Amino acid sequence: MSARPAASRRTVLRGAALTPVAALGLTACGRTEEGPARLTGPTELGPESEVAENGAKLYRDHNVVVSRSADGTLKAYDTVCTHAGCPINKLEGTRLICPCHGSEFDATTGKVLREPAVAPLKAMAVEVKNGTLVAKPQT
């Protein structure tokens, strides 16, 4: 016979009630089996004019951010957070903010501005074709 006392009815019911809440929390923090959509080839994002000088534009549907420096140079980064794989959905100025754990990234460099993420965003290739921004994974 076990030396441990049996769990009370209250303990069992409390555990059963908290299980769905804990599972929901874990789902929100983790990746889905498929994960967020990522570019696998050249993809048209939109008109070049959408990205202002010294600014950035977040293309949520493609998980890409494009920035333009004062000299007109364009840069692009994958906007899937390097901490837990969540798609970043908020851009304030040139600061990207991950909704899952609050990591922040610089949209002009891809560098981490605020942890828990420690790895920078992955750089992407970006070019203008007939006035349209086209991004693709770097090779």
Q: What do you see in this structure?
A:
The protein has 139 residues and is an alpha+beta fold. 15% of the residues lie in helices and 32% in strands. It is built from one helix and ten strands. The chain has one helix at 9-29; strands at residues 43-47, 55-59, 64-68, 74-78, 90-92, 95-97, 104-106, 112-114, 123-129, 132-137. A six-stranded antiparallel beta sheet has the order 1-10-9-4-3-2, with no helix packed on it. Mean pLDDT is 85; it is low at 21-32.
Question: What is the strand and helix layout of this fold?
Answer:
Layout: H1 9-29, E1 43-47, E2 55-59, E3 64-68, E4 74-78, E5 90-92, E6 95-97, E7 104-106, E8 112-114, E9 123-129, E10 132-137
Antiparallel strand pairs: 1-10, 2-3, 3-4, 4-9, 5-6, 6-7, 7-8, 9-10
Helix percentage range: 10-25%
Based on CA atoms alone, the radius of gyration comes out at 21 Å
Biggest pleated-sheet summary:
6 strands, antiparallel
What's the SSE pattern? HEEEEEEEEEE
- The low-pLDDT segments are 21-32
Counting DSSP E segments of at least 2 residues, the number of strands comes to 10
| Strand percent estimate | 25-35%
End-to-end distance:
64 Å
**What strand line-up does the widest sheet have?**
1-10-9-4-3-2
Shape: elongated
Q: Which class best fits the helix and strand makeup? A: alpha+beta
Number of DSSP helices?
1
